[in-house]
Amino acid sequence: MRVLMGVSGGVDSAVATYLLKQKGYEVIGIYLKMHRGVNHKENLEKIEKISKKIGFEYVVEDVEEEFQKEVYEYFVKSYEVGATPNPCAMCNRKIKFGIFMNFLEKYNCQKAATGHYVRNDGEFLYEAKDKNKDQSYFLFGIKKEILPKVIFPLGDYTKDEIKEIAKKIGLDEFANQKESQDICFIDTNYIEVLKNHFNPQKKGIVVDKSGKKIGYHKGYAFYTIGQRKGFNLFKAHKPHYVIGIDAKANKLIVGEKKDLEKRTVFLKGVNLFIDKNEFAALSKVRYRAPKLPSVVKMESKTKAVVKFLEPAVGVAKGQACVFYDGEKLLGGGWIRGAKK
Ligand SMILES: Nc1ncnc2c1ncn2[C@@H]1O[C@H](COP(=O)(O)OP(=O)(O)OP(=O)(O)O)[C@@H](O)[C@H]1O
Q1: Which domain covers residue 254, as residue numbers?
Q2: 264: buried, middle or exposed (CB in 10 Å: 19+, 13-18, 0-12)?
């Protein structure tokens, strides 16, 4: 069987390729040129070395235009309107498990593979063995139909085990390479990226829940819901947290910790791996947030309301709310609002 393996020049996809070959698959690597700002030349040099070591052919495809429109512009726009985007989740849906799937036929492959840390039984995705590296949260949006065609060779390994394998097969320099950034198209920090599109450093006022001016902020794109630092209050009161971002008025709304607690979260763009309109789930509102008991109710094909039995904190517009049954991924959606 021929497998089209997404290769990035990193250790994870290198070892994933090796593991596929060990299992007897015929592997073709594919490097996608996603964002213009990324140093493709450097990545391709790494892939060249890796492919020589492991022994596989690879192809290069340009998806810059789609990435620009579906991921990069979405990312900039989200910050501009005061939301907190999740470009990796968007990229997985649109690019890595979207356009990518179109290349299977072109390269005469029956399956696709990537070095994501997640497990797949062909029907559902499950959290990876390595809970610290698990990427299931970022995969909530991929289409259920493609699951039988996707292999994740790393799901049953820890990152340390992957590094060990890398060393064993002569890829030491990759095993010790510094971990890639969270967001592949950001070299420095995201504010620098935003500066190319709007002024993210336009200072504004901080208000309390009643609308009273109590301080200054350095530009609303610097903040996300739940953040405690980075703004100046006139008086050093007890801790204040960002509870709202009003991009139009260029205001940051702050409050106490309890003001962050939300029991109802509204979602759009919901994607489900199960066929139910109402179900209990453990849901999380951010990648590193705890999974909390909740009931998910679909309101239309793509909109849902999540009722949390214990309050969720740090609920930000633009982030994903992802549903689990134990380790099994049930689906998720994009947060569009929340209430107490
Ligand atoms: N430019 C790319 N072209 C093709 N596939 C890619 C590309 N970038 C990432 N991938 C695939 O997506 C997987 C997960 O990407 P992520 O950015 O999370 O990588 P990572 O965990 O740093 O992995 P790696 O060590 O392989 O870079 C990679 O292991 C790889 O299979």
Answers
A1: 201-259
A2: middle
| DSSP string computed for 52-98 | HHHT-EEEEEE-HHHHIIIIIHHHHHHHHTT----HHHHHIIIIIII
pLDDT tens-digit readout, 41-95: 999 999 999 999 999 999 999 999 999 999 999 999 999 999 999 999 999 999 9
Check whether residue 300 and residue 221 sit in a common domain: no
**C-beta of 180 in contact with ligand 1 (< 6 A):** yes
Among 168-172, 181-185, 267-271, 335-339, the minimum mean pLDDT is found in 181-185
Is 321 in the active site? no
Task: Give the SS3 label for residue 284.
Answer: strand
Q: Are 167 and 59 in a shared domain?
A: yes
Rounded distance from Cα 273 to ligand 1 centre (Å): 23
Output the CA 138–ligand 1 centroid distance in Å.
13
95 and 64 in a common domain: yes
